[in-house]
């Protein structure tokens, strides 16, 4: 039997790139050559490419009424006889509240550990168990100029080979429009910087994190002035660090909007409002994708319309970038405790997952194991 030293380097690299992170971490102490290889950026990127087509489901949940019984869970395959692992989050015992997941990209999970104003963050790799508490942001709340709302997002900037955390801070202005300041944390440089870039003609909707789509972070917003007849998406290009406003289809004016990534494209799920004035609410679910046209322009395409859609079903994201994840918000079904569903927009097939989240607040993210360092 051939020893590892007699095998070609390419063969060794190929074999190791197929192994789980736990095994690769153990191998670092066995061989200096393997430790150097698995720390090489090219190897780390190759390992991510092999892991990306088959991501896990990372969920954060806590009991809606009590705020307790919380946890971050890793589910290997929600559609089969899956394995479930409760993750031990960094600094958990010393935190004033349970961490919030800002985003999950290439095995790095960004956590918001602050009590308010999204002002304290941790970069965490659950696979290697490494974590790093980030420097405090530059923009803070003061007595004379208190923060109103904060929006954030975490993603990968492929142009600069960098992971970035974006923080949009809103202060109450003198008129109807809030005053905004924007700052960006660079994983590569390890520092925050405030940027001058701003966006206009939109008010960001509360309670959402930026969704990564093709190198940009995206938030839904209420359109103003010439966009007042619809909602819009505020898109931040992480490479050029500029904003742009993407108008949504007019139907979004009459429903809730959830921004998601679908097959690498920007998409929105439009669903009924729970409370709405008579005549101003839609009773259907629609799924729209921003597609590329032959002439180089982009156009919204309606993929799915479901009439008489239940107000108890709320889209919370996508898994594997091709199936929508829904949470059931209605009364508990005694015969079946599951409350999470997967919906495929292509064949419109629905699958119920054996995850009990009826009485829980729920957030779901795709997650792949990786060797990406937190520094």
From TrEMBL:
Annotated ranges, domain F-box: 1-51
Specify the domain of life of the species encoding this protein: Eukaryota
**Pfam families to which the protein is assigned, alphabetical:** F-box, FBA_3
InterPro entries referenced in this protein's UniProt entry, alphabetically: F-box-assoc_dom_typ3 (IPR013187), F-box-assoc_interact_dom (IPR017451), F-box-like_dom_sf (IPR036047), F-box_dom (IPR001810), SCF_F-box_component (IPR050796)
Q: Which CDD domains match?
A: F-box_AtFBW1-like
Q: Which SMART domains match?
A: FBOX (SM00256)
State the name under which the record lists this protein.
F-box domain-containing protein
